[in-house]
Write a structure and sequence with these properties.
Shape: globular
Number of helices: 1
Helix content: under 10%
Distance between the termini: 40 Å
Largest sheet: 6 strands, mixed
Strand order of the largest sheet: 2-10-9-4-5-6
Structural class: mainly beta
């Protein structure tokens, strides 16, 4: 079974930073495009950032210049560095293979990020 585990969330004041980590079992991240997603209360889950097999990154407009996705294939890890956090960034954050996220499959528990004013 493919299992994904997110960590690193927490409570931070506006303008602060957090670094999220994701690791998986049963799958090699090096063979897949990976993504970070988030879901705020009452809102749909959205793709925040993705990183391709070759390291190309993409971001949703609301986080460009503030968030950075990266991967370490030797450790089978994906990261999301979040800087200049805003209250509207408050959500549960999930990592997933992008192909799975696109079909709503294989979600883990996520990690809660709360940004106070």
């Amino acid at each position: 079974q493919v299992r994904l585990v997110e960590s690193g969330g927490g409570l931070v004041q506006a303008g602060g930073s957090l670094r999220l980590s994701c690791t998986g079992s049963g799958i090699r991240f090096s063979l897949n495009t990976m993504g970070w997603y988030r879901q705020a209360p009452g809102k749909q889950r959205e793709l925040v950032a993705s990183i391709s097999l070759g390291g190309r990154t993409n971001y949703t407009d609301s986080v460009k210049g503030r968030f950075t996705i990266s991967r370490d294939n030797t450790k089978n890890m994906v990261y999301l560095q979040m800087d200049s956090l805003k209250p509207e960034d408050t959500a549960v954050y999930y990592c997933n293979l992008k192909v799975f996220g696109g079909i709503g499959y294989n979600w883990g528990q996520g990690t809660q990020v709360t940004v106070s004013s």
